[in-house]
Design a protein that fits this description.
The chain is α+β, with helices and mostly antiparallel strands. The protein has one domain (about 50-250): Fumarylacetoacetate hydrolase, domain 2 (Alpha-Beta Complex), CATH 3.90.850.10. Helices cover about 20% and strands about 35% of the residues. It is built from 5 helices and 13 strands. Strands 1, 2, 3, 5, 6, 7, 10 and 11 form an 8-stranded mixed sheet that branches. A 5-stranded mixed sheet has the order 4-13-12-8-9, with no helix packed on it.
Length: about 250
């Protein structure tokens, strides 16, 4: 894939970010490997004047691993308001995320689970908002979905949980509601089982792409609730029993 082709893919996605109509797919500008996917992700971020605020990732058993960039400008705090620039439905996903307190740069051997956990500042509840730049994200190839950061739109964070290690993260009780109606109320549901697994995977995987996790970044590790699309205009309430709650108005 030439640099010109990557540029075309970036331009197509940026146009939708800036208010253009969703596209069917990337056509002949579709990426063919992970290096090209990452080049498109970074290129879109740069074209929009953004910086990396964090990452989304998942390692579902029996399915391909995946990751996307979360722009720092897309972060909001709980109890605030999120204004969507269009009238298309927005997907809601309640997740467990982690914040880094120090960098995890590339080195000769992989970081162990304990080493990655020791580099964390805290865990926290997070609600990801998703809205694809494609007209129908379900029919595009996985590589094109990743190039679009797996439809990432933004994220709302709850309070840090400093003593998060005492929680049984794979089996947290999760609840999500919209406009006062409960959408999900269950125990567990992370696609990777244990949300720490994708965190450790990403910490090591990024090195092969010339990148690494950095202090202050937030890594969110997959939805416990699935992705539920709603029209903007109501209050969202989500979180995990005893672990943390998130509320905000989707306008």
């Amino acid at each position: 894939m030439s640099s010109e082709t990557i540029t075309r893919a970036i331009e197509k996605l940026v146009a939708v970010h800036k208010g253009g109509a969703p596209i069917a797919n990337l056509g002949d500008a579709a990426p063919g490997n992970e290096a090209e996917i990452f080049a498109i992700q970074r290129g879109v971020l740069k074209a929009l004047g953004g910086a990396i605020g964090g990452w989304k990732c998942a390692t579902p058993p029996g399915k391909p691993t995946n990751f996307g960039i979360m722009a720092a400008s897309g972060a909001r705090q709980s109890a605030g308001r999120w204004g969507v620039a269009n009238t298309r439905p927005v997907g809601l996903e309640t997740e467990v995320a982690f914040r880094l307190k120090r960098d995890l740069p590339a080195r000769g051997n992989a970081y162990s689970r304990d080493e990655v956990l020791d580099a964390l500042d805290a865990a926290l509840p997070l609600l990801e908002l998703v809205q694809s730049r494609y007209a129908d994200h379900k029919v595009v190839a996985p590589a094109e979905g990743m190039a679009d950061n797996i439809a990432h739109l933004g994220y709302v964070v709850g309070a840090d949980v400093a003593d998060w290690r005492r929680f049984d993260l794979p089996n947290l009780a999760v609840r999500q509601s919209y406009a006062g109606a409960v959408q999900v109320d269950q125990k567990g549901g992370n696609p990777s089982g244990d949300p720490v697994l994708p965190l450790v995977w990403l910490a090591n995987h990024l090195h092969g792409l010339g990148e690494h996790l950095r202090a202050g970044q937030v890594v969110t590790t997959g939805t416990y609730t699935g992705c539920i699309f709603v029209p903007p205009g109501q209050r969202v309430e989500a979180g995990f029993a005893g672990f943390g709650e998130i509320t905000f108005d989707l306008t």
